[in-house]
Design brief:
Elements lengths: L2 E6 L2 E6 L6 H6 L21 E6 L9 H7 L7 E3 L9 E4 L9
Parallel strand pairs: 1-5
Antiparallel strand pairs: 1-2, 3-4, 3-5
């Protein structure tokens, strides 16, 4: 099972999730071990769930059109939308207090 390390507000949370887990879906049904994940729509429209991928990006698919539209050049800085990611391998994410500005 993939290990997710999630960093937010100076805290580090670590837990295992089932393979092919979407973090926002799990948070929405209260089955996600990281209660501090910021999210809203779950459909790639608002970018509230934007996270920096600190490690494990090599296991993720290329950004989809929603991520490209919402994040723009922030993709080059390692940002992704958690609602668009299905976690199949270990990953480390950080969510900043400020949302990344889309370009």
């Amino acid at each position: 099972m993939p290990v997710v390390v999630f960093r937010r507000n100076g805290q580090t949370y670590r837990d295992e999730v089932k393979a092919n887990t979407n973090l926002v879906v799990r948070a929405g049904i209260k089955q996600f071990p990281f209660p501090h994940l910021r999210y809203e729509c779950g459909m790639g429209k608002c970018a509230r769930c934007a996270c920096r991928v600190l490690s494990g990006s090599e296991h993720l698919p290329a950004p989809n059109w929603k991520e490209k539209k919402q994040l723009g050049n922030r993709l080059d800085e390692g940002f992704r939308l958690a609602c668009q990611l299905w976690i199949a391998q270990d990953i480390e994410l950080a969510q900043d207090d400020e949302l990344p500005a889309a370009l």
